[in-house]
Design a protein that fits this description.
It contains 14 helices and 14 strands. The protein is α/β, with parallel strands linked by helices and 423 residues long. The protein folds into two domains: 146 residues, 3-Layer(aba) Sandwich (Rossmann fold), CATH 3.40.50; 182 residues, Alpha-Beta Complex (Argininosuccinate synthetase, chain A, domain 2), CATH 3.90.1260.10. Strands 3-2-1-4-5 form a five-stranded parallel beta sheet, sandwiched between helices. A five-stranded antiparallel beta sheet has the order 10-9-8-13-14. A hairpin with a 5-residue loop joins strand 11 and strand 12. The protein is elongated and about 95 Å long. The N and C termini lie far apart (116 Å).
Amino acid sequence: MAKKAEKIVLAYSGGLDTSVILPWLKETYGYDVVCYAAELGQGDELKGIKKKAMATGAVSCYVDDLRKEFVEDYVWPLLKSGAIYENGYLLGTSIARPLIAKRQVEIAQKVGATAVAHGATGKGNDQVRFELTYMSLDPSLRIIAPWKDNNFELTSREAAIDYAKKHNIPIDQTKKKIYSRDRNIWHISHEGADLENPWNEPKDNVFVMSKPVSKTPAKPEYVEIFFERGIPRKINGRVVASVRLLETLNEIGGKHGVGQVDLVENRLVGMKSRGVYETPGGSILMAAHEALETLTLDRETYHYKKQVALKYADVVYNGQWFCPVREALDAFIDSTQKNVTGTVRMKLFKGRAIAVGVKSPNSLYSDELASFEMGAEYDQTDAIGFIRLFGLPMKVNGVVNGAKPASKAKKSKKSSKKKTTKK
């Protein structure tokens, strides 16, 4: 009796890498490959994906629409945290991987698979994000990573293209159009080809979700966003469901070239890489949320939350979503958002999203206190004692380290003049 083939679940996007990995797994090891694809708002990329997977060797293919779960359970917590990696990257790919891998594990358990596989390379961050999630949610599953397999001879995108042609696998990439892209409802990333040289300016045809800034409207556009406890609920006064809200802001922001970032970043695996990112709706929301927090958070909370945002960015970037520290950080962040309710007016113009107006029923801003006019609310003479106490350590430091009192400095100048006269 023939031995039953081992069943594995492949995270399948239908892109170049997974398109060639599917038949390679079957051809090299004889696996029964179950494909899994997640709809996260990548446009037409999943069109016909089931048919393609079955035609190239899959025994079955699952496709799930996870856009609502992605936005509400992953993107909104990221937004509330204010996390941005290395001052530019809004973590669009990073935040999506844990959800894809989570659902992939669930499919593996459903179909009785003994292993899971992904198409991430051994040089990138995604391998870590996928594999940490697998390990966290089902340590019994074996992990197959073809790019790290010694038998995997497709060591470049050019080689993968040649393999696809040889095996009649339909792909969109060509050797002239070879950017590596990852898209979802939050962003799209572009890597590879001419972008690998940091000296090369991104060409206009790189951009997909947004217009090149040089081709954006000559007049600004204003949009009002209402937040409730840190979560966006309305656009221009109208309640909009989460997915549609982000889609709408992508359309508006994309028209004005908002959210384009060209970044040389430090990968988790130790090397630098250059990526061009588009996050139009996300950039609007991040700027608006930040503006609302300046109005509604007290100083100590606001400052400490900035430190937490840096850690949150590292946790998401490094693929540690299903980790106790992320859950603990979320608990703190959620406690800071209880008063982050209000409306922000954003001005979109030539690639920029600027908060030009903000209001909240929980505002900590006082017109009377902020005014330059004197008033009973603030006794300015109180500042005398405050500054004396606040500056006491600096004063003591000055004395200990030999700072000269002004009176002695004047005497020193007079004595030097007298000596000069005698000569």
